[in-house]
Amino acid sequence: MNAPPRIRKAILLRGMALLATAALAHLLTVWAVPRVAMYVVMNGREARAMDMRNHAAFVPPVTARSRTVVMPSPDLLYAVCVFDVSQGAVHVKANPQLPTYWSIALYAANSDNFFTLNDRQAAGKPVDLWLLPADSGSNRRPLPPGAQAIVPPSRAGFLVLRVLAGDYEAEKTVLEPARRTLSCQPA
Known about the structure:
The chain contains four helices and nine strands, in the order ααβββββαβββαβ.
């Protein structure tokens, strides 16, 4: 193409502006989408209805119509909690005592999974987690024996307890009490 230099320069500048705009849009999307999604999960209508801020909430068993939990599995029972350490520590306890799989996962406000514990790792011991504010270092009281201190990367986040339920109706007398051992409350 033998375009005059002025036109080539205009095309180059427009191309660079387009690339810069695309890069900025991509970065904003990558940064914003996880944060907006977690904000909705932690503060949306269902979260308010289940009153799960620093309280455990027990999601009904998953059916084909369920969408309370993103991409729910019908083989799992869920218990959830939105934790907020802005006012101080949050104490998380559970003691499922199940012979099958269960796990606890903690997610930051940007959807990053920063902690996971499962039945094998717990080895039959009760779960005793203390979620602590980042600034609690020097004035932190000693934790009970067996307790684990965790400093979340954000002041608020989301906890999910998952319990394997092969046949919920046949096993619910064992599964429901196990998942309801989850406690999530200000310390």
